[in-house]
Amino acid sequence: RLEDNLALLRSYRTFAALGHATLLGTSRKGFIGALTGRRDAKDRLAGTLATIAWGVGQGASMLRVHDVAPAVDVVRVCTAIQQSDA
After folding, report:
1. End-to-end alpha-carbon separation of the chain, Å?
2. pTM of the entire predicted model
3. Tell me, what's the pLDDT at 85?
4. Which of 35, 59, 62, 84 has its CA 20 to 30 A from that of 76?
5. Quick check: 86 pLDDT over 80?
């Protein structure tokens, strides 16, 4: 269910804080299609990248993705923001 997926994402920090590595695997998932109206999984990149940015901010230590290069860019930007002194 859409609500269940959103609840898991909202509480991701709780899982990450348990002291174990966590894997976020939201790439092209159906709930992203339900939120964005993108029926074809290949059209869900933007939604996937949004969940990746959220997950990195919440402490995800590993990501499972289909579109590696854009995901790496998101992680690099999120990490730079987290580590900046500004």
Report:
1. 39
2. 0.92
3. 81
4. 35
5. no
